[in-house]
Amino acid sequence: MKIAKLVLAVAILVPTAPLFSRPPQDVPAEVNSAREALKGAHHDLEHAGGTWGGHRVKAMEHIQAAIAELNEAENWAKTHHDIK
User: Could you tell me what percent of the chain has a pLDDT over 70?
Assistant: First the structure.
């Protein structure tokens, strides 16, 4: 009986790693949706016309940077086996 209590106490107190790692997930739908929305916004601004004091072009650059960040995040998640 003492051994059983000791084993139970150790099992409770010692942190354990999961026996099986979780399988990689696909890219979340929200990330894909955000990427497509950014591409749509870039397209809209591209065809909006006018210079808007250079702010339209700057906004397009920010959108491209955001898309690049999403791509980098996806590559990181793939490298670290968070997604397929």
Answer: 73
